[in-house]
Each structure stands twice: as structure tokens, then as C-alpha cells.
UniProtKB/TrEMBL annotation:
Pfam families: EryCIII-like_C, Glyco_transf_28
Glycosyltransferase family 28 N-terminal domain ranges (all copies): 3-60
Keyword Transferase: yes
UniProt keyword Transferase present: yes
InterPro entries hit by this protein: EryCIII-like_C (IPR010610), Glycosyltransferase_28 (IPR050426), GlycoTrans_28_N (IPR004276), UDP_glucos_trans (IPR002213)
Protein's UniProt name: Glycosyltransferase
Species annotation: Streptomyces salinarius
Keywords: Transferase
Length: 404
């Protein structure tokens, strides 16, 4: 059977599917990852076929504010829709669709008769348990949470409107709006597996049938990979350091962030590792080291704390390592994950990116390192996550879907 996983966005939106794809490949499936060209190396390293999707994701880290995010997202998915069908034309017996690609993939599945399954990294279905992930707001109460959740879906429908119109025309399908397609899937209880931990987001009891939380899908990693020797030397040279990184966020803000990070570390009396990322963080000194990309699974368990942008993947990686965090959310779903980490007790209260100062960061670092409650909560979450098998449960769902 040929399975195509379609994902689009930043690295954190794509990398988890390399681990899922590798697990499915080991189970005997032919697996292709369809993503934008920047992620071809990730697919090949995981032993997966790569299929190119159009659209440029490089500017997404620069976006701040909900209006700017909506405009950028609409342009992104319209471009994405242009080449989506080409990837499926190369052959697929089952489509695994991410949060970003599902509103396009539904129409291809309709046109080709190909079965499909949602594999989401964020909870998008309305619930009374929490507000929609894109609002970043505090809970408004059960009724209001559900109402804002439905409103968020309508806003997402607007983002996809032009792309869906063009895609259905190309596929010779009758006109149908994104909202119509979504409601049709909901009525059919279209199955969606959510690749995050129930330690962070337990399955809401008011979700419809077909929506399940299965645990994280972890990015593929070569078992032979090791940390760079310079990093090993730094880790061995003193007390556990603090990691500070913003992933694909904060492009162009590197000089300010580097200064804030170093001042905060020294104010808190801590050693630090800065990950360059899209912001290009950089600093020198006996008490600080700048690194490039390294596997979180190798580095995070050896840290005192992690300061990060609260992306879904980094949030989960820190929890998996049992390491407490200081979340500094920038945009999109990051405030949601930051709030969940803090509610769990595994992180300090979030520091909004625009409010980040050396003083605030130092205070949070002192709190997260000195208070054992944060470390205990992170360790308990790590134990819970170790019992979950996201890829294994996904394999089981695929077999049920395709073999009856």
C-alpha cells in the first residue's frame, strides 16, 4: 500500500511526520512525504520518498499580529493548492492529512476516491474545555469556548476559500465552499488522530466520535547521531546549562534576543546554550555556547531548563526530557501550548515575545531552576508520555481503516 503524508508549514509542522513515516515504512508500507522543498533532506534521511509541494514558508517566522498572520496564511495555502493534486497524481492509496493540508486534501480525496485520515498536531475541533488554539486567549467558559471555536473554524474556511475554488475547478468537481466540505466531513465522523500527549491536552469529552489523541509523533533521528564534540565539552565543563532557542521564529531579531539572553543568564547565575535558529542568536564566552541544529532528544535531558517559543514540537520535546521550561510564545498556536505547559506546572507563566526583557527572563529562569515543583511536574509528564505510542496507535488506525 502506498501512503502519502501531506504536511506544510515550518519545520515543526513537518518534522514529526518523518518519524511517523519511518514507523509506517518499517511496518511494510510505501511512504511518501509531500512537503515544501526545504524538507526534502528530512524525508530522505528518514528513508521516505519525497514529493514537492509549492509555497514558500520562509517568511512565516516574521509574521506578528492576527491580521498579518491571516493574510500570510491565505497567500500560503492558495499557492499550496496549485500543486497539491500533482503530488497525489504520482500515486497514493491512502492520504494522511495534516491540519494545514486537510482542507485541500479533502477535495482530492473526493475527486480520486482515495481514503484519507487526519493526522493533526493541534486540536482544532471546538470544545468547552479550552478556547481555540489560534486565539491564544484564556478560557472564556464552556459556552464561550465552543462559540469561539466555531468562529475560528469559519475564519480558517475564509483562508482556504480561494485555494479550494481553484482546486475544485482543476479537479472538475462541482463548486463547494471550504465550510461545506468541512461540515460534510464532520457529519461523516471523518477520523482525525491528534499527535500530541494527553499529558498536555486530554481528549475533550464533548468531541464528536472519530477524534482521538494518540500521543506524539517524534521526528526521525539517526540512531548513530551524536552531539558535536564542542557541545559535549561544554556540557561536561560545569553545571547543567539552560537552552535558549526560538526555532523558526523571530527572524531578524537576533541581536536584541542574544543580548537579552546573555544578560538574563548572567543575572540568574546560569550557564547557557543559544541555538542560532532563524533569529541567528549568537554569543561568546566561557559561560555561553552558540550551536546550530541538534537533536532535542540528545540535548534536552542534559539541561537545567529550556527557554523556547512554545511550538508544539519543542514543547513536547522538553516535556519528554522531563525538563522544565520558560515559554516565550511568538504567534499562532504558541500561546496555547505555553499556557498548557504552565497549567501543567512544567513551566513558568509565559512571557509574551514582545514583552521579553532580560529582567523578566532572569526572574523566570531563577524560578524554574530553583523551584523543584516545575522539575517534578515535567518529570511526571515525561513518565506519562513514555506510555504513549503515537506512531503505534496510528498504525493500528490505518489497519482498521484499510483492512476493515
Amino acid at each position: 500500500m502506498r501512503i502519502m503524508i501531506a504536511a506544510a508549514g515550518s519545520r515543526g509542522d513537518v518534522a514529526p511526520y518523518t518519524g511517523l513515516g519511518a514507523e509506517l515504512h518499517r511496518a511494510g508500507y510505501d511512504v511518501a512525504l509531500a512537503a515544501t522543498d526545504a524538507f526534502a533532506p528530512l524525508a530522505h534521511e528518514a528513508g521516505l520518498e519525497f514529493r514537492s509541494l509549492p509555497a514558500d514558508t520562509r517568511a512565516r517566522g516574521d509574521v506578528a499580529g492576527k491580521r498579518g498572520l491571516m493574510r500570510t496564511a491565505a497567500a500560503f495555502v492558495t499557492e499550496l493548492g496549485q500543486g497539491f493534486a500533482d503530488a497525489v497524481d504520482q500515486g497514493a492509496d491512502l492520504l494522511l492529512l495534516s491540519t494545514t493540508t486537510a482542507p485541500l486534501g479533502w477535495h482530492i480525496a473526493e475527486a480520486t476516491g482515495t481514503p484519507s485520515l487526519g493526522v493533526y498536531l493541534q486540536p482544532t475541533a471546538p470544545t468547552g474545555d479550552f478556547p481555540p488554539v489560534v486565539t491564544g486567549s484564556r478560557s472564556l467558559g464552556r459556552l464561550a469556548n465552543r462559540a469561539t471555536g466555531r468562529f475560528a473554524l469559519r475564519m480558517a474556511d475564509r483562508v482556504y476559500a480561494q485555494a479550494v475554488t481553484q482546486l475544485r475547478h482543476r479537479l472538475a468537481l462541482p463548486p463547494a465552499s471550504p465550510a461545506e466540505a468541512r461540515r460534510r466531513r464532520e457529519r461523516a465522523n471523518w477520523p482525525i488522530l491528534h499527535g500530541f500527549s494527553t499529558a498536555l491536552v486530554p481528549r475533550p469529552s464533548d468531541w464528536r466520535p472519530g477524534l482521538d489523541v494518540v500521543g506524539n509523533w517524534w521526528p526521525h533521528r539517526d540512531p548513530a547521531e551524536r552531539l558535536p564534540s564542542e557541545l559535549e565539552d561544554f556540557l561536561s565543563a560545569g553545571p547543567r546549562p539552560v537552552f535558549i532557542g526560538f526555532g523558526s521564529m523571530a527572524s531578524g531579531d537576533g541581536e536584541r534576543l542574544s543580548e537579552v539572553a546573555v544578560r538574563a543568564l548572567r543575572r540568574a547565575g546560569l550557564r547557557g546554550i543559544l541555538q542560532a535558529g532563524s533569529a541567528h542568536l549568537a554569543a561568546d564566552g566561557d559561560d555561553v555556547l552558540t550551536i546550530g541544529d541538534v537533536p532535542h532528544t540528545l540535548l534536552f535531558p542534559r539541561l537545567a531548563a529550556v527557554v523556547h517559543h512554545a511550538g508544539a514540537g519543542t514543547s513536547a520535546a522538553a516535556l519528554r526530557a522531563g525538563v522544565p521550561a520558560v515559554p516565550v510564545p511568538v504567534t499562532a498556536d504558541q500561546p496555547f501550548w505555553a499556557t498548557r505547559l504552565a497549567a501543567l506546572g512544567a513551566a513558568t507563566d509565559p512571557i509574551p515575545f514582545r514583552s521579553l526583557t532580560a529582567e523578566r527572563l532572569a526572574d523566570s529562569l531563577h524560578q524554574v531552576v530553583k523551584r523543584q515543583s516545575h522539575s517534578r511536574a515535567a518529570a511526571e509528564a515525561a513518565q506519562h508520555m513514555a506510555t504513549e505510542g503515537g506512531a503505534r496507535q496510528t498504525l493500528r488506525a490505518i489497519r482498521q481503516l484499510t483492512e476493515g
